[in-house]
Design brief:
- By secondary structure, the chain is mainly alpha-helical.
- The chain is built from 4 helices and no strands.
- It has helices at residues 8-26, 30-48, 60-71, 76-79.
- Helix 1 crosses helix 3 (60-71).
- The protein is elongated and about 40 Å long.
């Protein structure tokens, strides 16, 4: 498996995306679900349009999967909440 050196802001955005997604899955308040969906949209754009993807032409699909795998585990700070 290839190793990718992801920028911190990209890692942070993907972790925030997963955190918002997990919150949305548990949310019952309709007004809060709207906020979370908008958050997911903004983060999706930030991740997809990140300049990092242009630095690895031809390897972006594998890198996107590696980013998702690397950031999937919940943040330990979130688990304590």
């Amino acid at each position: 498996m290839s190793s990718f050196d992801f920028p911190d802001d990209l890692l942070q955005a993907q972790r925030a995306w997963y955190a918002a997604y997990r919150q949305l899955a548990q949310e019952e308040n309709p007004s809060q679900t709207t906020v979370l969906r908008r958050t997911l949209q903004r983060l999706s754009v930030r991740i997809a349009a990140h300049p990092y993807w242009a630095t690895i032409p031809g390897r972006a699909p594998a890198a996107r999967m590696a980013l998702k795998q690397q950031t999937w585990a919940p943040d330990p700070a979130e688990a304590r909440r």
